[in-house]
């Protein structure tokens, strides 16, 4: 009997409709891996309060990109493309698993079990490891696997910040983006921010971001600047923020910016709204033109990178 392997693509997920926004935010802020809201017994009540307060603004932002996040649909396309790419390598089933929205780990694990899967490969769609993203997804997957009594063996692909095909995808997008400016523009890498405390406690996120950038720049020959977006709350976050970087570049006389979403592989609220609308408008107000590189999504070369991660022994 042929051994059947399940591949789980781990991602954050996002609200697909306006009605999903508040419960999605509640799920997000309930995760103590990301943020500790007082003592453990207060986490869920405080998460509910924050979700209630933030939902109207978040709903308005999602409305600007069509009413909801495309992340689930994109991840489903990536899963289908990867399953097809793996067809010649053996019996593989590929499914998405979202951390804060459907499909949750429990549902995907049950589907894998029903399909007769004998082992699992957990592949995060976060190239750079962080305990708040990959770490939280891995922990949830392990917990659900045990809670459901499945106890399927899980191989975790921890991170892949300099996987060659992934780097080639990014480099190609940067070269195409620079061509829009007749070859010259300031490359700005915008990564999802993280509380500085995480790095101080040893999280490798920053080092892995820098590893990705170094690999990309060896191919493009272009030096870029790094900044961080999507920060919230009163704690100290990684610096500089993307808005601060835009202001700094304007003060330096910069006129053309190519923004590269370096920690995101799929288009979602951070790219479609924050970068392509909010920061683009901000740059224009500062006298600069900002263009961005598109998400990798289900680009065949990116799918090839994911396939290599699955089949290459580690």
Number of domains as seen in the coordinates: 3
Helix content: 40-55%
Number of strands: 8
SSE string, helices as H and strands as E: EHHHEHEHEHEHHEHEHEH
Describe the biggest sheet? 4 strands, parallel
Classified by CATH, the class of the largest domain is Alpha Beta
Question: Strand order across the biggest sheet?
Answer: 2-1-3-4
Unreliably modeled segments: none
Q: What general outline do the C-alpha atoms trace?
A: globular
Instruction: Give the DSSP E fraction (strand runs of 2 or more residues).
Output: 15-25%
If helices are DSSP runs of H or I spanning 4 or more residues, what is the number of helices? 11
Q: Rg, please?
A: 20 Å
The whole-number mean of residue pLDDT values reads 95
What is the name of the CATH topology of the largest domain?
Rossmann fold
CATH architecture of the largest domain: 3-Layer(aba) Sandwich
Q: What structural category do the secondary elements indicate?
A: alpha/beta
**Distance linking N and C termini:** 25 Å
């Amino acid at each position: 009997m042929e051994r059947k392997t399940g591949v789980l693509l781990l991602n954050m997920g996002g609200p697909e409709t306006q009605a999903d926004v508040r419960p999605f935010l509640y799920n997000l802020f309930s995760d103590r891996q990301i943020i500790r809201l007082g003592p453990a017994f207060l986490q869920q009540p405080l998460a509910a309060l924050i979700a209630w307060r933030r939902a109207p603004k978040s709903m308005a932002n999602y409305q600007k990109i069509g009413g909801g996040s495309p992340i689930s649909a994109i991840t489903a396309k990536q899963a289908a493309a990867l399953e097809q790419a793996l067809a010649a390598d053996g019996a593989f089933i590929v499914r998405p698993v979202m951390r804060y929205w459907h499909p949750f780990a429990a549902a995907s694990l049950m589907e894998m079990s029903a399909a007769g899967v004998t082992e699992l490969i957990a592949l995060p769609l976060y190239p750079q490891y962080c305990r708040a993203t990959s770490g939280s997804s891995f922990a949830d997957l392990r917990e659900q696997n045990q809670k459901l009594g499945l106890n399927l063996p899980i191989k975790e692909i921890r991170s892949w910040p300099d996987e060659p095909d992934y780097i080639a995808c990014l480099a190609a997008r940067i070269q195409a983006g620079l061509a829009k400016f007749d070859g010259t523009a300031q490359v700005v890498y915008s990564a999802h921010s993280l509380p500085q405390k995480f790095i101080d406690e040893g999280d490798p996120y920053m080092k892995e971001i820098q590893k990705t950038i170094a690999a990309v720049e060896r191919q493009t020959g272009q030096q870029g600047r790094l900044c961080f977006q999507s920060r919230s709350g009163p704690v100290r976050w990684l610096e500089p923020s993307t808005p601060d970087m835009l202001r700094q570049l304007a003060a330096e006389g910069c006129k053309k910016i190519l923004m590269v979403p370096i920690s995101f592989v799929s288009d979602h609220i951070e790219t479609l709204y924050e970068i392509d609308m909010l920061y683009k408008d901000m740059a224009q107000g500062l006298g600069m033109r900002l263009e961005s590189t598109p998400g990798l999504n289900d680009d065949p070369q990116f799918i090839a990178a994911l396939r290599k991660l699955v089949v290459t022994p580690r």
